[in-house]
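STRUCTURE:
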């Protein structure tokens, strides 16, 4: 059992931030249906989904990953690179405080959780249009006492570091070598995305399976061939807002570590 924090799709999703995609019409009802199915997939994998309410003033609120970095020892509340997204952190911080001590990235640092890849005791921070050196320095300062090594990785050609590389387990990465230099990730086994699957490197690792967007069947097959159980989800409507599978949840492992009264989450509900 683990907790997954999610946030409902905002009625204003179509006004989302966009960096690499052209704006196209978004069917909010369809995005909501896909988001509900995503939550059901989390529940099937053993998650207790703690769903936050949508806010019409927060078009990108569904992409909760960007608002915090959750580690076993603490949670770091982000200071998102897009000003329009800074209001998203308050409700997430409140939810996370039930499970982890909280630390915050402070100005002038900016960081999106999508730029932070944690694999074992190694943390990679993508330097992107959203995440800057000041936040990298704060991450180092916050994490060193907990025994994490923090490395920088340059991000170009995609929104976040985790658009280019995600962890399948503590020692294995799923990577798109056309988007990030693999030499940064020394010591890791790497599974490359199928070159015919554009933007397929974003997979969500859960305790007993990996969630992959259904749009990437060849990459999913590669992951399965390496022995992982794969769950496929349709997220193409959310992808129009430049979202992918990691960005729609914050995974909080070890619910035994809930603090005080524990979660206000709704076990088994998908929203
Ligand atoms: C944004 O540009 O901030 C949103 N439209 C998409 C955020 C996706 N987040 C993620 O991949 N971690």
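SEQUENCE:
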């Amino acid at each position: 059992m683990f907790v997954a924090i999610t946030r409902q799709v905002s009625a204003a999703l179509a006004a989302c931030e966009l960096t690499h995609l052209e704006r196209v019409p978004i069917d909010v009802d369809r995005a909501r249906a896909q988001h509900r199915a995503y939550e059901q997939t989390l529940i099937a994998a053993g998650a207790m989904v703690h769903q936050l309410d949508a806010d019409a003033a927060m078009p990108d609120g569904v992409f909760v990953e960007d608002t915090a970095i959750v580690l076993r020892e603490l949670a770091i509340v982000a200071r998102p690179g897009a000003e329009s997204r800074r209001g998203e952190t308050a409700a997430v911080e409140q939810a996370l405080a039930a499970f982890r001590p909280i630390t915050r990235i402070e100005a002038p640092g900016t960081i999106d959780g999508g730029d932070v890849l944690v694999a074992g005791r190694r943390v990679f921070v993508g330097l992107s249009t959203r995440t800057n050196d000041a936040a990298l320095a704060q991450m180092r300062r916050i994490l060193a006492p907990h025994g994490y090594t923090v490395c920088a990785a340059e991000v170009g050609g995609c929104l976040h570091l985790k658009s280019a590389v995600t962890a399948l387990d503590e020692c294995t990465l799923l990577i798109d070598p056309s988007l990030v230099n693999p030499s940064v990730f020394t010591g890791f086994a790497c599974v490359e995305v199928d070159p015919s699957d554009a933007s397929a490197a974003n997979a969500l690792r859960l305790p007993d399976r990996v969630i992959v967007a259904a749009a990437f069947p060849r990459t999913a097959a590669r992951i399965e061939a390496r022995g992982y159980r794969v769950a496929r989800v349709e997220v193409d409507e959310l992808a129009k807002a430049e979202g992918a599978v990691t960005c729609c949840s914050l995974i909080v492992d070890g619910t035994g570590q809930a603090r005080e009264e524990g979660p206000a989450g709704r076990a088994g509900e998908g929203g």
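REMARK: The domain at 2-270 is CATH 3.75.10.10 (L-arginine/glycine Amidinotransferase; Chain A).
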